[in-house]
Amino acid sequence: MYMPTVRLPGLIDPHVHLRDPGQTEKEDFYTGTAAALAGGFSAIVDMPNNKVPITTKEKLEEKQKTASTQIVCDLGFYFGSMGDNLDEFDKVKGKVLGLKLYLNQTTGNFLLDKKHLSEIFECWPEELPILFHAEEQTFDDVLDIVKQHPRKVHLCHMSTAYELKRVIEAKDKGLPVTCGVTPHHLFLSEKHFKQYGVFAMMRPPLRPQVDVDFLWENLASIDLIESDHAPHTLEEKNSDNPPNGIPGLETTLPLLLTAVSQDALTIEDVVRLCHTGPKTVFGIDQGPDTYIEIDPEEEYVIDQSKMQSKSKWTPFNGWKMKGKLLRITLHGKKVFDAGKITAEAGFGQLLTKDKSIEEDS
Ligand code: DOR
Ligand code: ZN
Known about the structure:
Strand order of the largest sheet: 5-6-7-8-9-10
Bound molecules: (4S)-2,6-dioxohexahydropyrimidine-4-carboxylic acid, zinc ion
Low-confidence stretches: none
Strand content: 15-25%
Oligomer: single chain
Order of helices and strands: EEHEHEEHEHEHEHEHHHEHHHEEEE
Radius of gyration: 19 Å
Helix content: 25-40%
Number of helices: 12
Mean pLDDT: 96
């Protein structure tokens, strides 16, 4: 049978929450990186809002040690701060790809008071970006501080026309800011929240269609796509106090390839947003022996029960897709083929400049 195969560089998702250590009932390093491979990502970067936040070198190294024997794709890390760990910054600079700050309440009680911002901007190593979760009024606080103290800042998950307009203005003025958008803010709007309820509940929330349209119209000003893969168990989502967040690693590429088949964007846009963009912003280079192969013509339906992620649910369940991942080659070895993970746990590499993980003495 004739099968048109297209080869693309390995995709990179610079924004995932793998929950390991601390909440491995939601996801762990093996299932999270297996979900990445099943979604076409050869590298992902994990956020620090674990149950015990990653704000010390000790916690970070503990996390990296566990990850190193479990991961099936490459994995990088961000460090976290609530303003009380500035003396740890220099100790972790070869071990992480950036610093993530939360100016709004989110999973894991990890809120930073903005009074700490200028000190953090002074102390965090200049060469590494600072990433922000900043919604609504805190968004302007970030742009104000970047104006006073220009340094590499990445604004996570643009969801409104207002935010993206302000980023475009900042870029036009030459400020060193980049921004990302999630697939759910591109493919869902607030009407889907009414339809899917807690399974479409996340921070930032789904927005009105005018905002969604503005994101699509200004895709050229967006640097990258980030899934914000935020797995939670079905039980938690069905509880009286459902947490925010949805899994995204296994639906991002299918949604984008389907949009390519509908001429909403091009395959070159997908490569820019899911490979070149994150590679450039976070300095991730996996080399030429890492690539994925897709069949842009294959049609299928998303089946949540087949997901590698522990969260066997997605608001996109049952959606008709066109364009499927066939294989992934990571560092010259086939790690995903015909729906199956073919890599041993631990084959993935830690994306750190400093490879040493100090043993407990
Ligand atoms: O919806 C979200 N879930 N937004 C966040 O900022 C955090 C994430 C999570 O960790 O569950
Ligand atoms: Zn997030």
